[in-house]
Every structure is written in C-alpha cells, then in structure tokens.
Amino acid sequence: MGLEISRPISVGGINPNIYINRNYRTGFGQSLNADTFERQSIERYTSETAIKRMINSNPQIQKIAKNFNPQMQLNLTELKELLNNHASDTQKIAKGIAENLPFSLRNKVDLKAIDDAAYLHDIGKVLIPENILNKAGKLDDNEIKIMHTHSQLGYEMLKTTDISPITLNLVRNHHQNAKKTGYPWVGNDFNADLNLQILSASDKYSALTENRVYKEALTPKQALTIIYQDVKEGKLHPFIFKALVNHVNSSQLSKVS
Q1: From CA 42, how far away is CA 39, in angstroms rounded?
Q2: For 25-110, where are the alpha helices, taking DSSP H only?
Q3: What is the DSSP letter of 84?
Q4: Is residue 4 part of a domain?
Q5: What CATH number does residue 190 fall under?
Q6: Which of 8, 21, 131, 194 is disulfide-compatible with 225, CB 3.0–4.6 A?
Q7: How high is the pLDDT of residue 251?
Q8: Which conformational region is residue 2 in: left (phi greater than 0), alpha (psi within -120 to 50 degrees), or beta?
C-alpha cells in the first residue's frame, strides 16, 4: 500500500519506483566530514542569551534588518514553534531521504551537518516581524523581500559560533537549488550538492504538508506533485526525489500498520 501518484496535476505520472539512469551526472562532489560538537548541544544556539550574543557579535545582522527590525526585537515564541514542529519534522524527513538513497550516494551524505542545519535553518526568522511571518493574506513584494532575508540572517548569526562551515552554508542556502533560481544570491561557482538538495527537499515537503495561518496543509500526494516539478525543471536531482517518495510511502505504511 504505497503512495500512488497516477496523474498529478500539470505534470506526468510519478511512480515511486521510477527508473533512473545510473549515468545521470550527479555533480555532488566528495564526501564531507561532519562537525565536531555534540548533537545534544545544538539547542544551545537557540536560547535567548545565545541569540542576543550572536547578534551583538556581528554588525552585518543589524545592517540587514535595519529597515524592518531596527530594535532587534526577537520573536522567540515563533522560533520555539518552528523548532518544535517544522524544524524537527524537517530533520525526520531529511533522515528518511538519506536512508532511501542508493548506497553509492548514501555514504556521501553528511548526516550530522544536515541534521544540525535542518534544526537551525529557520533561526533567522526570530528577527522577522510577526505581522509578516503570520500574515493571513498574500505577502506584498516588500514583505517577500523581508521574508527572504531569514536565511542570510540565520547564516550571519550562526557564523559567530563554532558551527561547521558545511552547516553554515546549508543554513544560508536552504532555499537555493541546482538552477540557482532561489535565494539568497549565489555566484557561478555555487554547487547545490547532495546535502543541500536533501535539506531543501525536506524543508519544502514539510512546509507544504503542514498547516500555517496563510494556508491549509497539502496532502502528501499534492506536495510530491509540486516537488516533482522541481525535478522536471532541473532544480532537484531525481535520486533525491525518488528517496523522498519512498520515505513518504514507508511513513504512510507505518501509520496504517
């Protein structure tokens, strides 16, 4: 009893066991080493004291937020909600994707960096005004621009700590893709590697399937249909999408067994 996507809206049919040419150019690079601090201490970067220390240590943060949060007010309630729900869900999905990859790719995944980045990727939203984060209607162009600063803000905050460079770059670029059409801006040398594509797909699937004040949760089938469009546009590697579908299938099975 797997998740079947026979005729998804506006795209071709998706089979969870789709055949993928093994000669597909991955461009994922080499295996990366995980950072060295202990996993149980990752929460220490999300306390009010730690966040204020990070902000005070990097003047660039105030430059980014000066037009929408000049007083550096912290939305700690929203951050706690994100960490307890979306962040932990993103961690679980990322782990599921990694576990469903072919072995040749699985042993190149930096699980520690992805897990830490999945937990911390939205930490910059602590500085985004609540009326933008939880606006019930559509954001205007200026509000979208402000919202898009959250990944750069998170990066600037965390780079004042001992977080690994791999995790830092994942936090900064979790809304980027292999076609470089996401945000923030990246140069020609940017590579949306294996770790980043796992995190991005996990973040997107989690966001699509959860209720938010401005939208209702999509079904797994609807969310996968949207993400499959990223595969068709060359933004997401098909191996990662296939692993996501298989993870969703196994999760659905475990709920009914």
Answers
A1: 6
A2: 48-57, 59-65, 76-82, 88-99, 103-106
A3: I
A4: no
A5: 1.10.3210.10
A6: 8
A7: 85
A8: beta
Number of structural domains (the chain) is 1
**Does any domain span residue 130?**
yes
At 14, give phi and psi (nearest 5°). -120, 125
Divide the 257 residues of the chain into consecutive groups of 10 and give the mean pLDDT of each group. Answer: 44 44 42 40 93 97 97 95 96 98 94 97 97 92 98 98 96 97 95 97 97 90 98 97 97 68
Contact 3, 18 (CB under 8 A): no
Q: How far apart are CA 201 and CA 206, in angstroms?
A: 9
- pLDDT, position 4: 46
pLDDT, residue 9, reads 38
> For the purposes of burial, counting CB atoms within 10 Å of the CB of 146, is it exposed (0-12), middle (13-18) or buried (19 or more)?
buried
Whole-number pLDDT of residue 213: 81
Contact 150, 124 (CB under 8 A): yes
Return the closest-CA partner of residue 175 out of 156, 194, 202, 214.
202
